[in-house]
Amino acid sequence: MVKYHSSAIDRTFSALADPTRRRILSRLKDEPGLSVSELAGPLSLKLPNMMKHLDVLSDAGLITRTKSGRTVAVNLSVGPMQEAMAWLQRYERLWTVSLDRLVASVEKDGE
Hints:
Layout: H1 8-16, H2 19-30, E1 34-35, H3 36-43, H4 47-59, E2 63-68, E3 71-76, H5 79-109
Antiparallel strand pairs: 1-3, 2-3
């Protein structure tokens, strides 16, 4: 088996590809510092499955976990998301030009 060492941005996009992980991040944006149990409840996930999702998010650097007694609090970490946004913005001009052409074509055909 070949071991693949992905870059940080690869891990970020891979983590974001899963809708459950995106829901977790969205919830943490609105409610920072939730415990693992609080995060798992509304998603109907058992704790082992939740921990797998959190491990992927943590490996991508998208969350941090802090333990206080028996409670683990989860918070967003913005660095990897900022890097992903910067990568996407490099291509925004290309998408905008293509979309502008499409709009012009549709408007021309509608005349």
